[in-house]
């Protein structure tokens, strides 16, 4: 899998992904950022244990050790200030 991460005030230090609803986390490989204001690409190899429903969770951590939270501390209808972990649902077929 692959994605992009961005931190508004500093550098992305790490990206982790989970396939088991946050029970365990695997560190992704970060590509060098083209410049300090750009999105940083990441990649990870994932093997799902069996077919079925999964949610892929991704969270970035900045240079100060601050990670994206699992839930938004402040909710609003337009999603302003939303910085929660990203989640993608999928069904793996046999």
TrEMBL record:
Pfam families: Mo-co_dimer. Residues 1-90 form the Moybdenum cofactor oxidoreductase dimerisation domain. Coiled coil: none annotated. SUPFAM superfamilies: E set domains. Gene3D superfamilies: 2.60.40.650. PANTHER family: SULFITE OXIDASE, MITOCHONDRIAL, SULFITE REDUCTASE. This is Moybdenum cofactor oxidoreductase dimerisation domain-containing protein. It comes from Paracoccus cavernae. The lineage of its organism: Bacteria, Pseudomonadati, Pseudomonadota, Alphaproteobacteria, Rhodobacterales.
